[in-house]
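Format notes (please read before filing issues)

Several people have asked whether sequences and structure tokens are stored in separate files. They are not. Every record keeps both together, in the order shown below: the sequence lines, then the token lines. Line labels are part of the format and must not be stripped during preprocessing.
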Amino acid sequence: MSAIKKFVLEVIAELKRVVYPTRAELIENSIVVLVFVTIMMAFITLIDFGIGQGVMALFTK
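Then the structure lines:
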């Protein structure tokens, strides 16, 4: 039983050390993530379109 109590106390102590981002940091990081995801989505879409066109050209006459 003391192991469970020790675990809970360590979890509480660790949660007191958590540093939450400020509103400005949260907004900035969210924008960075959205821009990165949009760029990757466009890149993968172009690759997919190119491969699809190549396959269609290869197998159709």
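For reference, the curators noted about this record: The CA atoms of residues 49 and 55 lie 10 Å apart. Helices lie at 2-16, 23-59.
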